[in-house]
Sequence to fold (253 residues):
Amino acid sequence: MISTLGGSEELIKIGVRVTENVNTVVILAGIPFKELFKGKNVNSEKMDIDPLQKAKDMKRLLTELGLEVKVHQVNPLSFDECIIKTIDLINEYKHEEPVLNVTGGTKTLSLAALTASWMCGAKAFIIQESENGAVRVDLPTSQPGKFSDIGEQGKRILEYLLTVTDSLEQDIELYKNDDELRSLITKNIANGLRVEPQSIVTNLKLLESYNLIKSRRGAIKRGEPSPGKMSVKLWWLTDKGKIYATYFRGTGL
Fold:
């Protein structure tokens, strides 16, 4: 069971109690607001809530009950970060049929987790109060879309760019030397896919039109014996593209 956590760890305990055959609980806890807004004058009761500490307390309790518990932290105000992390976790446990308890956390975290469940076709539920106490309410589940308009090669391009992004030490737009970004030029993307460069240009432009990737002109050093630099095109993922690429990497579509 993958559970979002914000102000109340009790919702996780209830989720475990009303769900059959749970042997592993993965807690997706928001970073405390006092860390997110450090140095800023924010007047809110939520500043005193520490989801990470609550997650640790819940881990101690559930471990004593014989469950395996893992804790992951996310920025609960970043939709992109929350959905990418949730997709990664669903993919990690996909052979164990994960179910998501999306009751806790900020609205952003819960909505991101629910969106991830729809994209991946994973079951999700909320804990709701009733006259008989807290009950589990299962939410509608979609079948994962095929994203057929992107095409097989488009998916492979997104996966390749995500692999490159994961290997870089900083955000791509912070690099001042294009030679450090050789893996993002058209020729090397094609090499990574083991196809000819001209065969991917149309799909690169298509993905850019969907706002899944960005591009710009760059210049890198020529190999020996030719001196100087040559003009190249650099391509990299947008935040939206990272979400799609994370999804495709886990599903094998």
Q: What stands out?
A: The longest helix spans residues 151-167. The longest strand covers residues 213-221. The radius of gyration is 22 Å. Strands lie at 2-5, 24-30, 68-74, 99-101, 123-130, 133-138, 213-221, 229-237.
